């Protein structure tokens, strides 16, 4: 999607044994940007699934409606140095970054 238009993240359940697929369910609304980075044991970006030890997730969420009393003038910078923005509008945004260590990989 266009980086300027927020979307809803959705998921659906799949029964791998029976083959049935559940309905799409919303997880989060108003997601404007999302990035996944896969890191090896030294913290370097990797494209090799077997080398992945950590997954970094960066999310920029935007309010559904503008707030006329709020003036956004901000650039959001991801941990790897990518700039998201600059946004100069009346929408409130929140940037979240987290790292998740994978388990049982490389044992």
Provide tags for this entry:
mainly beta, 44% strand, single chain, four-stranded antiparallel sheet, two-stranded antiparallel ribbon, flat, 107 residues
Word description of this protein:
This protein is an all-beta fold. 0% of the residues lie in helices and 44% in strands. It contains no helices and six strands. The strands form two sheets. It has a four-stranded antiparallel sheet, with no helix packed on it. Strand 4 and strand 5 (83-87) form a beta hairpin. The model has no long low-confidence stretch (mean pLDDT 86).
Helix amount: under 10%
Q: Structural class, from helix and strand content?
A: mainly beta
Continuous helix count: 0
Reading the helices and strands in chain order gives EEEEEE
For the biggest sheet, the summary is: 4 strands, antiparallel
Measure the end-to-end span: 37 Å
What is the CA-atom radius of gyration, in angstroms? 17 Å
- CA-based shape: flat
Percent strand: 35-45%
Give the rounded overall mean pLDDT.
Answer: 86
Number-wise, the strands total 6
Record the SSE blueprint.
Blueprint: E1 7-11, E2 25-39, E3 54-62, E4 74-77, E5 83-87, E6 93-101
Sum this structure up briefly.
The protein is mainly β and 107 residues long. It has strands at residues 7-11, 25-39, 54-62, 74-77, 83-87, 93-101.
């Amino acid at each position: 999607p266009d980086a300027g238009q927020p979307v809803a993240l959705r998921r659906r359940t799949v029964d791998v044994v029976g083959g049935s697929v559940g309905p799409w369910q919303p997880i989060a609304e108003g997601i404007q940007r999302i990035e996944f980075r896969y890191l090896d044991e030294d913290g370097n970006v990797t494209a090799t699934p077997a080398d992945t030890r950590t997954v970094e997730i960066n999310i920029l969420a935007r309010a559904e409606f503008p707030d006329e009393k709020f003036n956004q003038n901000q650039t959001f910078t991801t941990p790897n140095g990518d700039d998201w923005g600059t946004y100069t509008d009346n929408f409130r945004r929140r940037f979240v970054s987290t790292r998740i260590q994978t388990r049982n990989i490389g044992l």
